[in-house]
Design a protein that fits this description.
alpha+beta; 23 strands; 11-stranded mixed β-sheet; single chain; RNA-binding; 15 helices
Length: 482
RNA sequence: CGGGGUGUAGCGCAGUUUGGUAGCGCAUCUGGUUUGGGACCAGAGGGUCGCGGGUUCAAAUCCUGCCACCCCGACCA
């Protein structure tokens, strides 16, 4: 049987059940979020994709400033000697650093690294600035991009250059640094849940998964549609590792010379990959209303008929006046059907159809992107109705994502049980762990899964490690990850 | 770094086996008719066939060297 055009269109996006990675690539390309650049692993973020990043930026930036942080900017290039100062750090990052060796045609005396992260350059400056406990805390953040020479790249999830923010703070006491580390993690968690409608598990990273040079790394972990985890944000308590290596010291309250305690924390454009893999479907993107660059798209029907466009613009003005991000597509060269599919694919939360029939009945046709539910609403108070609907959608999308994650989260009985479940129904496995790195390495070797985190919210699932039988120390989440 | 694949119009591809005027669909532009789930008719523009070397009267096609990108693994936000 011949396919009709609608089926043809849907076929342009690979079904996620058939091939999840291909589905992801199709969605990103078809919706014009990014393009590949001439340099491998480096992506161009197009306007629709960049708008998503801007929404994340403005939400987080406000939260940072509300908690006393200020924005700064440190240089892109770091002298090799600075990078080498903290041993674990340089060992962690050296394999993926890009180097600048020439200025113009002249070979440089000392090669310069393109920052893979900025702890070292920032610490070298902090060392120059800090004198007294009275100047503490330093609460700085920067929005920038970093470069890590990756072997295998995927748009948003892993690119050689990515946009992020990195906060770098100094504190007088270990307690303050720990409080800051946890505060920033909780800000990330709130942002993910409130803005992106992505539920996350928060907790501590294991020794082997922590940031190179950190005392402790905390993480938020989200679960994707395919049951793989995505590390969505990290907050590091760096202790005094860097402050001692970089000789950052100050005169304390008692007159003694002291080293401050240090934190760093970041989230990146990777979040956009998570946003796609948590909410979207086989028809394309599904964006939560709060982050959608356009929340409502109005499509006039038979727009040349008397009064249609006037009414459509009147509606747009009413919604715009209520701070709803609304747009209208009154282009004449595309049919309504084309527009329906286009904006559906782009994940715009609501579509409003308005034509002669509606105007006669003082109504509009409203279609939800998340459920594809079609409803007819009166035009008496459109701004109030649409605003409520957007709020409902935001709430329901978070609930659905949470339900989907919980459905893919299970406790395990034994290592064998874990292997079977992880294979048949990938997701978050909850199990007990003895804390030894050997166990952790074995899990990874056997199954490809890793310990994602030791969650704050602990459960007692038994006295012994599910992986080796030794006495258990923590309940952990285990999953394959991006 | 291993394994696979692909480079021909903006995008997706055919043409390569068997050398002989570079094609198709979509997109774009012009004009007209259309508009409630990817409209229709008529016309138009657009190419150093990834790059270098070779064979030949003649190369997208054969030989040879290189390059790039994509996918799957191992390593990493």
């Amino acid at each position: 049987m011949a396919l009709n055009k609608q089926d043809d269109f849907v076929k342009e996006i690979t079904k996620m059940e058939d091939d999840f990675p291909q589905w992801y690539t199709d969605v990103i390309r078809k919706t014009d979020l990014v393009d590949y650049s001439p340099v491998k692993g480096f992506m161009v973020i197009k306007p629709y994709g960049y708008a998503l990043w801007e929404a994340i930026q403005s939400d987080l930036d406000k939260r940072f400033k509300d908690t006393g942080h200020k924005n700064v900017y440190f240089p892109l290039l770091i002298p090799e000697s600075l990078l080498n100062k903290e041993k674990e750090h340089v060992e962690g990052f050296a394999p993926e650093v890009a180097w600048v060796t020439h200025g113009g045609s002249q070979r440089l005396e000392e090669r310069l690294c393109v920052r893979p992260t900025s702890e070292t350059i920032i610490c070298s400056m902090y060392s120059k600035w800090l004198r007294s406990y009275r100047e503490l805390p330093y609460l700085y953040n920067q929005w920038c991009s970093v470069v890590r020479w990756e072997k295998a790249t995927r748009p948003f999830l892993r690119t050689s250059e990515f946009l992020w923010q990195e906060g770098h703070t100094l504190h007088e006491t270990a307690e303050e640094a720990q409080a800051e580390t946890l505060q920033m993690l909780s800000i990330y968690k709130s942002m993910c849940e409130d803005l992106l409608a992505i539920p996350v598990v928060d907790g501590l990273k294991s020794e082997s998964e922590k940031f190179a040079g950190a005392h402790q790394t905390y993480t938020i972990e989200a679960l994707m549609h395919d049951g793989k985890a995505l590390q969505s944000g990290t907050s590091h308590n760096l202790g005094q590792h860097f402050t001692k290596a970089f000789d950052i010291s100050f005169q304390g309250r008692t007159g003694e010379e002291e080293y401050p305690f240090h934190t760093s924390w970041g989230v990146s454009t990777r979040l956009i990959g998570g946003l796609i893999m948590v909410h979207s479907d086989n028809r394309g993107l599904v964006l939560p209303p709060k982050i959608a660059p356009t929340q409502v798209m109005i499509i006039p029907i038979a727009q040349k008929k008397e009064g249609v466009l006037d009414k459509a613009y009147e509606l747009k003005a009413a919604l715009h006046h209520a701070d709803i991000r609304v747009d209208i597509d009154d282009s004449e060269n595309q049919s309504p059907g084309w527009k329906f599919n286009e904006y559906e694919m782009k994940g715009m939360p609501l579509r409003i159809e308005i034509g002669p029939r509606d105007i006669k009945n003082n109504q509009m046709v409203v279609v939800r992107r998340d459920t594809l539910e079609k409803m007819t609403l009166s035009l008496d108070q459109p701004a109030k109705d649409i605003a409520e609907l957007l709020e409902t959608m935001q709430k329901e999308m978070l609930e659905r994502a949470r339900a989907s994650r919980d459905e893919k989260t299970y406790s395990i009985e034994s290592y064998d049980d874990f292997k079977v479940k992880q294979k048949e129904n990938p997701g978050f496995a909850k199990g007990m762990w003895c804390g030894c790195p050997e166990c952790e390495a074995k899990i990874k070797e056997d199954t490809g899964a890793t310990i994602r985190c030791i969650p704050f919210e602990q459960e007692d699932l038994g006295a012994n490690c599910h992986f080796c039988g030794a006495p258990a120390k923590h309940m952990v989440y285990v999953a394959r990850a991006y």
